[in-house]
Specification:
Layout: E1 3-5, H1 10-23, E2 27-30, E3 46-49, E4 56-60, E5 65-69, H2 74-83, E6 86-87, H3 96-99, H4 111-116, H5 124-127, E7 134-141, E8 146-150, H6 162-166, E9 174-182, E10 184-185, E11 189-196, H7 200-211, E12 219-223, H8 225-228, H9 234-237, E13 243-250, H10 252-266, E14 272-275, H11 277-289, E15 302-306, H12 312-322, E16 325-330, E17 335-340, H13 348-358, E18 361-366, H14 369-374, H15 383-396
Helix pairs in contact: 12-13
Length: 411
């Protein structure tokens, strides 16, 4: 039975990591547990459960900054921001359903988890990644030493840019105890232009035309017919085929004008429909949270591919031509979500060959623990970058006590 330590404050986190460093005792770091299945299985004999480190410590709407303990649930963060008409512009996804939660019914994740995994989905085209919105943090390294980086305002972010390093490190360098993030006013209005019936390759042209227009598109995605039919939004599920979606947001008059201009621009590609705020929000949540591959009983391996947008449909077609499955597209075609039929090693050789030829990279988001232990979950690094990764890990965690093996074998 795995030993579990549950610190209730920052000092207890420090005590636990000082003990682990001294004893060279590896720890699996867990918050809400919704992303335990994301990454390689951790090679540790004990668990540090930091779910007790929650709560918003400071929220200054006028200054557009929020500071909270790392394990504060995203639902609590979103409720506080919504009350003040604000939001996290990088739009972190809730992958709880896709990954099966933590076995206790928990979904939604935490603010620290979103930062640790650098999660940002449809609005990344406009707003950037999670790392672009992290102002500062407090943490404890694998050496058992506390440290801080950044601050509560952009002008205080000086010295080594550890904010960028910690974001996306999956808890392998330090245990983050508190984070400060930039928040922004939520858009007054959001509308989505739908184009019906496009084949995948044609949809790439639709999204490119919209993104290259002067109408400040916030997000662009494409759902092939079988996936569109599974949407909870009636205009999408009732389309009878593929749906390409392009959203705009902002002040009401501006949104109305830009939406009308996009309808005219995209009309030559197919039949046009329009979603207003509530239906727009519902559709983009589905795309963001990958609900199309999160239905009960669906345990197919799921891949997340980042490729040049112009290559999205071609890369997906090449992979699906060798292995059966389904795909849909976000980021104007640059982000491809794939659910593949059962194959050896979750089809990693076929996936990586196709993605590498495009100059992109692929991450295995969902697979069995056995598969994730046997094949690279994150895209293999070139030798110089892999060496740098090992040296950074050595600097923060010389005894390998923090989530060993989570990202790469032996690191």
């Amino acid at each position: 039975m795995t030993d579990t330590f549950r610190p209730e404050n920052d000092q207890q986190v420090l005590d636990a990591l000082q003990w682990a460093a001294a004893e060279e005792h590896a720890l699996e770091i867990v918050g809400s547990g919704t992303k335990t299945g994301f990454g390689r299985p951790v090679e540790a004999g004990a668990r540090l459960d930091v779910s007790g480190l929650g709560g918003i410590g400071l929220y200054e709407p006028q200054e557009l900054v929020l500071t909270a303990k790392a394990s504060t649930p995203m639902a609590e963060i979103e409720a506080a921001l919504t009350e003040k008409g604000q939001h996290l512009a990088f739009d972190p996804p809730d992958l709880g359903r896709l990954l099966g939660g933590d076995g206790r019914g928990n979904v939604g994740g935490t603010l620290g988890g979103a930062i640790a995994c650098n999660l940002a989905e449809p609005r990344r085209l406009k707003a950037g990644a999670a790392r672009d919105h992290l102002l500062g943090f407090s943490a404890v390294s694998g050496r058992g030493e506390t440290f801080k980086s950044g601050g509560r305002v952009v002008k205080n972010v000086t010295g080594f840019d550890l904010v960028k390093l910690i974001t996306g490190s999956f808890g392998t360098l330090a245990v983050t105890t508190e984070v400060s993030v930039k928040v922004l006013p939520a858009p007054e209005k959001t509308r989505t232009v739908l184009v019906f019936g496009c084949a995948d390759a044609d949809a790439m042209r639709v999204m490119t035309a919209a993104l290259h227009s002067p109408y400040e598109v916030a997000s662009a995605a494409h759902l092939p017919g079988a996936l569109a039919a599974a949407s909870s939004v009636s205009h999408v599920s009732g389309a009878g085929g593929a749906v390409t979606a392009v959203s705009v947001e902002g002040p009401g008059p501006s949104v109305e004008f830009r939406c009308g201009a996009l309808r005219d621009l995209l009309a030559p590609f197919g039949q046009i429909e329009e979603l207003h705020s509530a239906n727009s929000a519902a559709l983009w949540r589905e795309i963001r949270d990958v609900v199309f591959f999160a239905t009960t009983g669906d345990q197919r391996p799921v891949w997340r591919l980042s490729v040049p947008p112009a290559d999205g449909a071609r890369v997906a077609a090449e992979i699906l031509g060798n292995i059966g499955g389904q795909a849909y597209y976000d980021w104007g075609g640059g982000l491809v979500w794939l659910a593949l039929d059962e194959s050896e090693g979750a089809g990693h050789r076929v996936v990586r060959e196709a993605v590498t030829r495009s100059g992109g990279h692929a991450t295995l988001i969902r697979a069995s623990a056995e598969t994730r232990a046997q094949v690279p979950v994150f895209h293999p690094q070139p030798a110089p970058l892999a060496d740098l990764t090992r040296r950074v890990k050595q600097g923060f965690d010389p005894n390998g006590v923090l989530n060993p093996g989570r990202m790469y074998e032996g690191v």
